[in-house]
Automatic annotation (TrEMBL):
This is Peptidase M20 domain-containing protein 2. GO terms for cellular component: cytoplasm. InterPro entries: Amidohydrolase (IPR017439), Bact_exopeptidase_dim_dom (IPR036264), Peptidase_M20 (IPR002933), Peptidase_M20/M20A_hydrolases (IPR052030), Peptidase_M20_dimer (IPR011650), Xaa-Arg_dipeptidase (IPR017144). It comes from the Bacteria. One of its GO terms (molecular function) is para-aminobenzoyl-glutamate hydrolase activity. Residues 171-257 form the Peptidase M20 dimerisation domain. Belongs to the peptidase M20A family. One of its GO terms (biological process) is folic acid catabolic process.
Amino acid sequence: MESLKEKVVLQVDEIKNDIFEVADEIHRNPELGNQEFKASKLLREKIANYGFTVKDVEGLPTAFIATKKGTKPGPTIALLAEYDALPQIGHACGHNLIAAASFGAAAALGKLGNDLVGEVMLVGSPAEETDGAKVLLVEKGIFRDVDAAMMVHPGNKTTAYSTSLAMEAIEFTYTGKAAHAAAAPHMGINALDAVIMLFNGINALRQQLKSDVRIHGIITEGGKAPNIIPDRAVARFYVRAKEKGYMLKVKEKVIACAKGAELATGAKLSYKNFELPFDNLITNKTMADMFKHNLKELGVSDISDEEEGIGSTDMGNVSQVVPAIHPHIAIAERNVAPHSIEFCQAAGSSRGKEAALLSAKAMAMLAVELAVKPELLQKAKQEFTKATSPSL
């Protein structure tokens, strides 16, 4: 097995120009979620050059599934590529590097030829920052026959173990009645007052919630002019918590606050999800341990302990149906925050590209281990079953 791991690492080095090109091209051409046509086309063409069969995903024009089977039977290992950018500040979450690393690992495994065991799958996953295409990919059964899944996310520190918060995205709309705000305020129903009461209600709710809960929102519509009673007001909120079950309980409390504002003001309430819900991430420790060991073999010594995630990712949904990991590799100093201009610059730097190369190597090594050592894969699956089984 060690010789095969060494071989796949050499394969990554041999194709590093392609890996760097993917990182650079996607970084130079940032595209928002579900609009990543250039990035998707680039990745499809690049991976096809390594003998992969590329297929579309119905209903998701910028998603794709690329597969290559080995000559020997074995597990199916999925490598997930993200490539959407953030509004205005581009690849400030480093998704260009995620795409490059997963592409690199898949291509290197594909180059093993007769030594390839099982099947390699590169999954093009759009819109992680917004609507989370992995949620739909899970629902479409893309991971039904997958044995393990992985991706690596850029960060400001390196860690093999990470978690994320379950999340729901809720839009509240209040409909009131317009009237002259000075001459006839008594004839109006103020929808904006209802939104403000909603914010105040949620603020009062916070002290009764667990410390891992995050509720944050914005007002997207709040009236047209100061002298007109607003007849329509809209607010959008993210509701997050460490565990999905508790997050859903918090969601109902937030909705109760919204209904209270409706009752108090008379403005009619409606609400809906404006993005798909994300499950919390379950990191498979068996796989994460092997990934960490591979990083050490590759010369990485500065590896942090488990990171308690306070963000959310649609990789959480994948981790609920298949053993999965979502480690982080440092591309910036610890005082550089993701979703910042500085992090965007790091994602386009030589350090960022070297991190993508390192990530590709560590993932390819892990894929080899899972394929040729059935007992490791079995251990990962047993852990997954225990972690996802309902508590008695």
